């Protein structure tokens, strides 16, 4: 049985948003960080990559959740992804399911469906919403070194994914996959799960 580790990228400063999204809350007080961690519940283990305001964000996390600090987080999402995958090299997991902290309607059902696509360390898949590639992304262990080598800036795994065959797992019946880049009331440009690193 394939072991899938959930990796939550939550290190950014949230410049367009107005602050680190790892510290953001909904109007009802719901923590984006905790909601994103709960969504990764179907995974065998959960690892959160922190950066900006790392100490404050870490204090919100349950003790059962592993924390990784990306010291070069300011270099972009690629740095966070490299930190997470590099740390996982010491584990026995077969695949990493990489998610983002700003996907409000991506829940455990989406994660479970994508994780079910993991057939071994060679898997390369991602959630799709009405046919549009989005997040989370499932990276088999065989691909970790390649992603670490090519991930840079806010492009992250974009170049690697573009150069390889990626299976799409349709999740449009479960969520929209839309990320949040601006605070409510600001001029927003949702991207249906599309991100610079994807």
Question: Explain this structure to me?
Answer:
With 198 residues, the protein is an alpha/beta fold. The protein has one domain: Spore Coat Polysaccharide Biosynthesis Protein SpsA, Chain A, CATH 3.90.550.10. Helices cover 24% and strands 21% of the residues. It has helices at residues 32-39, 54-58, 77-88, 108-115, 141-150, 158-162; strands at 4-10, 45-50, 66-69, 95-100, 124-129, 132-140, 167-170. The chain has a 7-stranded mixed sheet, with helices on both faces. α2 (54-58) links the parallel β2 and β3 (66-69). α3 (77-88) packs antiparallel against α5. The radius of gyration is 15 Å and the shape is globular. Residues 185-198 have low confidence and may be disordered.
